[in-house]
Design brief:
Helix content: over 70%
CATH architecture: Orthogonal Bundle
Distance between the termini: 24 Å
Shape: globular
Strand order of the largest sheet: 1-2
Radius of gyration: 21 Å
Largest sheet: 2 strands, antiparallel
Order of helices and strands: HHHHHHEEHHHHHHH
CATH class: Mainly Alpha
Number of domains: 1
Structural class: mainly alpha
Number of helices: 13
Strand content: under 5%
């Protein structure tokens, strides 16, 4: 029987496609099995619920970041946005240091503020015409600095008890942050995968020049996707402040790196144009399982940072490898 080169190439492409799609899930399953063996408490209901609640904050931030990444950008200021907005929100609702505003009024203001901070990243990226990585690295320092200045070197307490429900409350056995996470993920998936807007985001990330030629307003889209990222960070800020119940300049610090690592592990390309919400959630679950499992196993924080740093580098390297492999596969098919 003669070998059919075309059939072999198609088979190779399909195998590669399957590997790309299911590698994150296999990594997640392997991590679950390993920690189930070495940490007996890992699979208990209370720990699983705690794990999912822990990742809810990162997941919400990561959904916003995904819009930016799929469009071909990056936002390193998410954690700093949360630092600034949680300080402002705590000052608004605190009866000790702040204004004592009703949380139902202050929360929308906080989320709107996060959205505006995200928009500023898009606007500055358009004005300065440099890669968003540089722009958001600069704004990260600005937002974080403003948070420190406004906080005045103190933790802000005196928050109303009614505010606890958003980060500490339950609906039946399900924590409120998990419900909000699911809602954000569903809404994000709908807009990204089932609307013309989502198609424009993917087109913009896949080939910006081609997207411009077919009539997509690149500058406007850039501002919108960064605003979505800011909106998500504003929501996460509310939940984190309610969870910690104390305005702190450390709240949210570094969350952008967990979100970025999760996105890359879940198949969101650093170059843009690729990724799914389901893949993103798989990536966040990998980070959450590793964090939770290492804590149960008794590893100290610096070991966890070492593992997460290695994961980020591995995820970036894997993304670059997949891009190179896809390019070769497409040339082979052609």
């Amino acid at each position: 029987m003669e070998n059919n080169p075309s059939l072999s190439k198609n088979l190779s492409w399909k195998i590669g496609h399957i590997i790309r799609n299911y590698t994150p899930l296999l990594i997640l399953l392997a991590a679950i099995v390993i920690f189930s063996i070495i940490a007996p408490n890992f699979t208990t209901f209370n720990n699983i619920r705690l794990l999912v609640r822990q990742i809810s904050f990162v997941t919400i931030s990561a959904v916003g970041l995904m819009f930016v990444m799929v469009a071909g950008g990056i936002d390193l200021s998410i954690g700093s946005q949360i630092i600034l907005t949680n300080i402002v929100l705590s000052l608004m609702i605190s009866s000790t240091y702040g204004l004592g505003i009703d949380p139902l009024i202050a929360i929308p203001i906080c989320i709107a503020m996060g959205t505006i901070l995200g928009m500023m990243n898009g606007i500055l990226s358009n004005i300065l015409k440099v890669h968003p990585l540089i722009v958001t690295l600069g704004t990260a320092y600005i937002y974080r600095g403003l948070g420190y200045i406004i906080a005045g070197g103190r933790n802000i307490d005196g928050l109303p008890d009614s505010f606890r429900v958003y980060g500490q409350g339950y609906v039946g056995p399900v924590p409120v942050p998990i419900i909000i996470m699911i809602f954000v993920a569903i809404v994000g998936a709908y807009f990204l995968h089932n609307t013309n807007f989502g198609s424009r985001v993917y087109a913009m990330g896949g080939n910006q020049e081609a997207a411009h030629l077919v009539g997509i307003n690149i500058k406007r889209m850039k501002v919108i996707v960064f605003a979505i990222g800011g909106l998500a960070s504003g929501i996460a800020s509310v939940l984190l402040l309610s969870r910690v119940f104390n305005g702190q300049v450390t709240t949210g610090a570094g969350i952008e790196f967990d979100a970025l690592t999760a996105a890359l592990l879940g198949g969101v390309s650093f170059a843009g144009g690729e990724g799914t919400i389901l893949g993103l959630i798989t990536g966040v679950m990998i980070i959450g399982v590793l964090n939770n499992g290492m804590q149960l196993f008794g590893l100290q924080d610096f070991y966890q940072n070492l593992v997460k740093g290695a994961l980020l580098l591995a995820a970036v390297g894997y993304d670059q490898y997949q891009k190179s492999r896809r390019a070769k596969e497409m040339l082979a098919i052609a």
